[in-house]
TrEMBL record, chain A:
<dbReference type="InterPro" id="IPR027417">
    <property type="entry name" value="P-loop_NTPase"/>
</dbReference>
<dbReference type="InterPro" id="IPR017871">
    <property type="entry name" value="ABC_transporter-like_CS"/>
</dbReference>
<feature type="domain" description="ABC transporter">
    <location>
        <begin position="6"/>
        <end position="238"/>
    </location>
</feature>
<dbReference type="GO" id="GO:0005524">
    <property type="term" value="F:ATP binding"/>
</dbReference>
<comment type="similarity">
    <text>Belongs to the ABC transporter superfamily.</text>
</comment>
<protein>
    <submittedName>
        <fullName>Metal ABC transporter ATP-binding protein</fullName>
    </submittedName>
</protein>
<keyword id="KW-0547">Nucleotide-binding</keyword>
<dbReference type="InterPro" id="IPR003439">
    <property type="entry name" value="ABC_transporter-like_ATP-bd"/>
</dbReference>
<dbReference type="InterPro" id="IPR050153">
    <property type="entry name" value="Metal_Ion_Import_ABC"/>
</dbReference>
UniProtKB/TrEMBL annotation, chain B:
<keyword id="KW-0813">Transport</keyword>
<comment type="similarity">
    <text>Belongs to the ABC-3 integral membrane protein family.</text>
</comment>
<feature type="transmembrane region" description="Helical">
    <location>
        <begin position="173"/>
        <end position="196"/>
    </location>
</feature>
<keyword id="KW-0472">Membrane</keyword>
<feature type="transmembrane region" description="Helical">
    <location>
        <begin position="142"/>
        <end position="161"/>
    </location>
</feature>
<dbReference type="InterPro" id="IPR001626">
    <property type="entry name" value="ABC_TroCD"/>
</dbReference>
<feature type="transmembrane region" description="Helical">
    <location>
        <begin position="6"/>
        <end position="27"/>
    </location>
</feature>
<feature type="transmembrane region" description="Helical">
    <location>
        <begin position="226"/>
        <end position="248"/>
    </location>
</feature>
<feature type="transmembrane region" description="Helical">
    <location>
        <begin position="57"/>
        <end position="75"/>
    </location>
</feature>
């Protein structure tokens, strides 16, 4: 595996007075595709936001590419949860994708034709070229998620963080997104994804990070994603979990 | 130039600046910040008067900006200290406004500054306070101030168009791209403050809220493009101001009240007849699809 490009030490964070993340330590290597797994309220989104300086950390340090976040942020792409924005905003799909370039375009400048072209190509890659001029509220949930992915692609970052990109999308979108994630990985990019569907973890991710307020385990999927570890992460829901896993095995066969 | 001309021009300038600014207030879901700031700028104006001992445009603008940004800052701070956002707003603006009211009656006692005027404005007096500008000649002070503010508003919106668009739509992405989200927020609140201060003389603190929010909310119903929404909103502001003036002249009532009422009528028309989001369009659509 590649060199270490993210080092998180002793990270803690809270919402109001409740601590939602406690003493999280891990390292991510270049070229890995990591699923962040844990029950609701385990702090998965908070972990992403805290790593990316979008939520204040109580303690700890985060270093990207051996640099602090501020110096590395041009190389980092973030895909927020689809529900975090107002899809009634007066804009179209192409414009949303172009927003991914605003950091590069810089102050006092407008997106030019080249930027629009890049955005269009990213939409094309996500199979959304026909919807470029569609008002975003008229897109389905899956299409909105593809627009978000296209916006991340156009950023051309080295390290991507995605918050539940597969939540509530149709099967075709799920396939399209997973193809893109595998392609990013093949191109040497690193991706961390908050994921909720335990059945697909083994197919989708080469690394998993099991989280429930604190880091329970992290490593290669085949070593870490075991019944015992999942039970430890999800607490009492062991039996329900076991059935799910069996079902997953059958469907693969 | 005639008395009516100046009033119409002043009212139109209020409608235009407020309409443009209001679009971003609506899209940032901070419409009620307009209400808060329109009240707290009173404190800024009073403090500016106490310091400079005159009712001058520039001192008022600076006092208003400081008061507006202080409001935004205090609301943000209280909110981060676990006070609910709407409660924080209610606490901050009523308190600052109350200080302004107390200062007016204790330390100012001037005919130019009274609470009635601050709340309702008095556009009919505007043509009487003129200043002389190079090239333009005699122009009412309030009108000159509004012209200046309109230029500031338009230049700022053009300069920071994409930053404000992105921080309104997706602040998390904006922050991760390195756009200073909080700074852009305060800059925008500063812009809301100057617009409010400049409109203050003409329409007063309450009516400026109507001019900021209602034309933009109406424009939102007509279009799916931000730039068109801005143009429409400014246009609705101007039309409401002019129609409002003539309605007031016709039935002999408060001009600012009549202008604010007209914005409400424009909204009602939009709400019913807008082809995209109007009531009639919504009723017809399911039928059309069958």
């Amino acid at each position: 595996m590649g060199e270490i490009i993210l080092q998180v030490d002793n990270l803690s964070a809270s919402y109001r007075k409740t601590t939602v993340l406690n003493n999280v330590n891990f390292k991510i290597r270049k070229g890995s595709l990591t699923g962040i797994i844990g029950p609701n309220g385990a702090g998965k989104s908070t972990l992403l936001k805290t790593i990316l300086n979008l939520h204040p950390a109580l303690t700890g340090s985060v270093r990207f590419f051996n640099q602090p976040f501020q110096q590395a942020k041009k190389r980092i792409g973030y895909v927020p949860q689809r529900g975090s924005v107002d899809w009634d905003f007066p804009t179209d799909a192409l414009d949303v994708v172009t927003m991914g370039l605003y950091g590069k375009i810089g102050w006092l400048k407008r997106p030019n034709r080249k930027h629009k072209q890049l955005a269009y190509e990213a939409l094309e890659k996500m199979g959304m070229a026909d919807y470029a001029n569609r008002q975003i509220s008229q897109l389905s949930g899956g299409q909105q998620q593809r627009v978000f992915l296209a916006r991340a692609l156009v950023q051309d970052a080295d390290f991507y963080f995605m918050d539940e990109p597969l939540a509530g999308v149709d099967a075709a979108t799920e396939r399209a997104i997973m193809n893109i994630l595998k392609e990013l990985k093949a191109n040497g990019k690193t991706v961390m994804v908050v994921h909720h569907d335990l059945q697909t973890v083994e197919d989708y991710f080469d690394h998993v990070l099991l989280l429930n307020k604190t880091l329970l385990c992290h490593g290669r999927t085949e070593e870490i994603f075991t019944k015992e570890n999942i039970a430890k992460t999800y607490g009492g829901n062991m039996r329900w979990m076991g059935e799910n896993r069996e079902y997953a095995v059958h469907s693969v066969e | 130039m005639s008395y009516t001309f100046w009033i119409l021009l002043t009212a139109s300038l209020v409608g235009l600046s407020c309409g443009i600014i209001g679009v971003f207030l609506i899209l940032r879901k901070t419409a009620m910040m307009a209400d808060a700031i329109s009240h707290t700028v009173l404190l800024g104006i009073v403090l500016a008067y106490i310091v400079t001992k005159e009712v001058s445009g520039m001192a008022m603008l600076i006092g208003g900006i400081l008061a507006g940004i202080a409001t935004a800052f205090l609301v943000q701070s209280l909110h981060s200290l676990q006070v609910q956002h709407d409660a924080a707003m209610g606490i901050v603006f009523t308190t600052l406004f109350a200080i302004g009211v107390i200062l007016i009656s204790t330390s100012v006692g001037n005919a130019h500054l009274d609470v009635q005027h601050a709340l309702m404005g008095e556009i009919t007096f505007i043509p009487f306070h003129t200043i002389t500008l190079p090239l333009i000649g005699d122009i009412p002070q309030a009108t000159a101030l509004l012209l200046f503010v309109l230029v500031v508003v338009i230049v700022s919106i053009i300069a920071f168009y994409k930053e404000w668009k992105l921080t309104s739509f997706d602040p998390a992405l904006a922050a991760s791209l390195g756009i200073p989200v909080l700074f852009m927020h305060y800059l925008f609140m500063g812009l809301v403050s100057v617009t409010t201060v400049a409109s203050f003389d003409a329409v007063g603190a309450i009516m400026v809220v109507a001019m900021l929010i209602t034309p933009a909310a109406s424009a939102y119903l007509w279009t799916d493009k931000l730039i068109i929404m801005i143009i429409l909103s400014g246009g609705f502001g101007v039309v409401s101001s002019i129609v409002g003036y003539y309605v007031a002249a016709w039935i002999d009532t408060s001009i600012s009240g009549s202008m604010a009422f007209t914005t409400g009528v424009v909204f009602l028309i939009s709400f019913i007849f807008s082809p995209k989001h109007g009531l009639i369009a919504k009723r017809l659509k399911p039928v059309g699809q069958m």
